[in-house]
């Protein structure tokens, strides 16, 4: 799970006093969401010095801040220009702390991407499973997907645009995610389009088309338009009920 800047992770009740000392770098948490040029700490940044927080809670808080900072830095700078320094500045943690959690910036990016995918899949499945017909399920799932992206433009840019610049491991994860969504559509194609003879290819094509529509709007900083595409994209799916013989040459 990625906790966005300004929204600290929920603390677990009944924390025992552990006398943990947290040391943050000088200037950590500068500006809004730990960015340079401002004053004050991040709202989700733990106090320095000794306190009664469990080490596990401290580590989880630091990890969440790093993942959130990866999304921020990637969206602002692009993956290629994002550096470890850019991440730790936004996260309000030391370089040492980052390397206690991740090997390098690629490792941190992959963890942030995986967390985002888990979050969007959870929302899509929740919406999808509340419906009883194929059309309603796809409409609900597609709507949840688009709303998730629109609600967090930084996360959307990281997951849809910058993932393509993050190397082979990131692209493999992105392809796996697209296959997962294609399987959801494929599961419903026979009910929606009984005459469909190539449901797997059809689902792959649909996911590719939806991705392109989403990608172009995020790239143009029009992420807020995404929820309004749901009905038109569903209509494109429903228009697939075409007999292949009607497309044969000479007809």
Q: TL;DR of this structure?
A:
With 251 residues, the chain is mostly helical.
Describe the overall structure:
This protein has helices spanning 55-77, 84-91, 95-101, 105-129, 134-151, 153-161, 168-192, 199-219, 230-238, and strands at 20-22, 49-51. Mean pLDDT is 82; it is low at 5-34 and 242-248. The longest helix is centred in the middle third of the chain and has 25 residues, at 105-129. α1 (55-77) packs across α6. It starts with 19 loop residues before the first strand and ends in a 13-residue tail after the last helix. It is built from 9 helices and 2 strands. The chain is an all-alpha fold and 251 residues long. It has a two-stranded antiparallel ribbon. Helix content is 58%, strand content 2%.
């Amino acid at each position: 799970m990625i906790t966005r800047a300004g929204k600290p992770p929920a603390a677990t009740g009944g924390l025992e006093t552990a006398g943990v000392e947290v040391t943050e770098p000088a200037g950590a948490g500068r500006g809004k969401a730990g960015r340079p040029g401002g004053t004050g700490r991040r709202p989700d940044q733990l106090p320095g010095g000794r306190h009664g927080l469990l080490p596990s809670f401290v580590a989880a808080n630091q990890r969440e801040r790093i993942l959130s900072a990866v999304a921020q830095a990637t969206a602002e700078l692009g993956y290629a220009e994002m550096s470890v320094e850019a991440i730790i500045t936004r996260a309000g943690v030391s370089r040492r702390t980052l390397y206690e959690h991740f090997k390098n910036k690629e490792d941190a990016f992959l963890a942030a991407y995986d967390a985002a995918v888990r979050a969007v899949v959870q929302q899509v499945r929740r919406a999808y499973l509340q419906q009883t017909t194929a059309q309603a399920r796809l409409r609900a799932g597609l709507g949840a997907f688009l709303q998730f992206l629109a609600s967090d433009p930084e996360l959307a840019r990281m997951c849809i645009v910058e993932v393509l610049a993050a190397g082979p491991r990131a692209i493999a994860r992105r392809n796996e995610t697209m296959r997962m969504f294609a399987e959801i559509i494929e599961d419903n194609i026979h009910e929606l389009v009984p005459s469909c003879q190539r449901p797997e290819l059809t689902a792959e094509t649909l996911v590719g088309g939806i991705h392109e529509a989403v990608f172009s709007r995020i790239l143009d900083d029009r992420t807020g338009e995404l929820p309004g595409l749901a009905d038109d994209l569903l209509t494109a799916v429903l228009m697939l009920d075409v007999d292949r013989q009607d497309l044969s040459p000479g007809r």
